[in-house]
């Protein structure tokens, strides 16, 4: 078994996909070491185990919507895009989505995966409750009024196996998506706040070429964001570039047929907030990914600093994406306690990438950069933990929920270090 990109070979002794919660409880309680595995879109060994890998994708269940409270129970193993379709069919939405709808709900939340938008928190921040199987095999429900709740959402699979997630929902809405070509880095950085506040969701894609130009993906919420002016629609220079005259792919010279519709077409939220259509595979998986979540106020300066590495980044890169998100209160979220900017790299699958990761961490880490938990990074575990003010509290939760280390693995052992008892996973 391997992850989605094929470069991580899992070390589990077997894979199980129980068809009932009762069977899952028995499996968890009877296992010495076990880890939940979602759609395997992680790019590191966070999801690995030397024991049992378990999927919750075959558990029975459907969406349960409480319209009066604006809440919906969603099966943990369901793909985000599938859940979005079902919500929209009943007139509901979640506030945001990731670039891909192909990832599982529980895996998305456990790793702090995010969407985009100055006023939008991470996807994990929409969670109002969790149902999980604990190390003892008990079925536990934790809601937002529990004192430990903020540490249980982005939990890296360290506390239990999630079976259902309670999401806050809102009435469905429409999005119009536009792309702006030939935006130079200097214009972006000089007008950083204006650019990223110009729509409900904004992404900047760059390949760090010598010209230092890129494209802006702008997703405008119908009824909330002002429509484009006639001059803008006519191609007037805008944000240092101009409105694209044809559908674009984030990667230069790639066919855009798998991308969600652009050029102002009014679409349901779940068909425009992701960059790629759910019914298509967005790439072959022949890539590696890194992302750092940095403090909003430091982002323009850090991006300027990264320009010094551009000659080395560009040859190893498919594309880089810059996005914003507002602060949340989840202990291990990349946006915990601060407005945040994500600096994302989709690399070519070549070994030279690994040699560049320590330099990227040396640049972004001391500035408070928190690497995405599910992507490639090279950080000292103790230094990484220090970037999260509530990390010791999270370690305490792990000790309480999983005293024998049933859900632990080498990645978690290195991260938790002396904060918890080291367990033998042989």
UniProtKB/TrEMBL annotation:
Coiled-coil regions, chain positions: none
SUPFAM superfamilies hit by this protein: FAD-binding/transporter-associated domain-like
Record's keyword terms, sorted: Oxidoreductase
One Gene Ontology MF term: D-arabinono-1,4-lactone oxidase activity
Keyword Transcription regulation belongs to the record: no
Pfam families: ALO, FAD_binding_4
InterPro entries for this protein: ALO_C (IPR007173), FAD-bd_PCMH (IPR016166), FAD-bd_PCMH-like_sf (IPR036318), FAD-bd_PCMH_sub1 (IPR016167), FAD-bd_PCMH_sub2 (IPR016169), FAD_lactone_oxidase-like (IPR010031), Oxid_FAD_bind_N (IPR006094), Vanillyl_alc_oxidase_C-sub2 (IPR016171)
A GO cellular component annotation in the UniProt record: membrane
UniProt domain FAD-binding PCMH-type: residue ranges: 7-172
Protein name: Unannotated protein
Organism: freshwater metagenome
């Amino acid at each position: 078994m391997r992850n989605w990109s094929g470069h991580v070979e899992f070390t589990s002794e077997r894979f199980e996909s129980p068809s009932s919660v009762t069977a899952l409880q028995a499996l968890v309680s009877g296992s010495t070491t076990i880890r939940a595995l979602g759609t395997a879109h992680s790019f590191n060994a966070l999801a690995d185990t030397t024991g049992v890998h378990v999927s919750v994708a075959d558990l029975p269940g459907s969406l349960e919507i409480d319209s009066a409270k604006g809440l919906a129970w969603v099966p943990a193993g369901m793909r985000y895009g599938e859940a979005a379709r079902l919500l929209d069919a009943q007139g509901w939405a979640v506030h945001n989505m990731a670039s891909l709808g192909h990832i599982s709900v529980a895996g998305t939340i456990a790793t702090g995966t995010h969407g985009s938008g100055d006023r939008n928190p991470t996807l994990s921040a929409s969670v109002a409750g969790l149902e999980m199987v604990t190390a003892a095999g008990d079925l536990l429900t934790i809601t937002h009024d529990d004192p430990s709740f903020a540490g249980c959402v982005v939990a890296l699979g360290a506390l239990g196996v999630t079976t259902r997630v309670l999401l806050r929902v809102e009435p469905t809405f429409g999005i119009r998506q536009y792309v702006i070509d030939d935006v130079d880095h200097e214009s972006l950085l000089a007008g950083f706040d204006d650019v990223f506040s110009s729509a409900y969701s904004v992404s900047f894609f760059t390949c760090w070429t010598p010209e230092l130009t890129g494209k802006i993906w702008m997703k405008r919420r119908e009824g909330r964001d002002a429509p484009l002016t006639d001059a803008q629609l006519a191609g007037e220079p805008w944000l240092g570039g101009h409105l694209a005259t044809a559908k674009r792919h984030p990667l230069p010279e790639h066919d855009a047929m798998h991308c969600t519709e652009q050029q102002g077409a009014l679409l349901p939220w779940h068909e425009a907030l992701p960059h790629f259509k759910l019914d298509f595979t967005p790439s072959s998986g022949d890539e590696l990914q890194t992302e750092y979540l940095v403090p909003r106020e430091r982002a323009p300066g850090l991006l300027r600093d990264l320009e010094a590495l551009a000659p080395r980044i560009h040859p190893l890169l498919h594309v880089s994406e810059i996005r914003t998100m507002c602060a949340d209160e989840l202990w291990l979220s990349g946006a915990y306690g601060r407005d945040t900017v994500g600096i994302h790299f989709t690399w070519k699958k070549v070994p030279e990438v690994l040699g560049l990761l320590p330099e990227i961490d040396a640049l972004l880490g001391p500035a408070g950069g928190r690497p995405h938990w599910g992507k490639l990074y090279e950080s000292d575990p103790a230094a990484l933990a220090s970037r999260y003010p509530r990390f010791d509290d999270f370690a305490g939760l792990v000790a309480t929920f999983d005293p024998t280390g049933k859900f632990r693995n080498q990645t978690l052992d290195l991260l938790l270090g002396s904060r918890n008892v080291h367990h033998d996973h042989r």
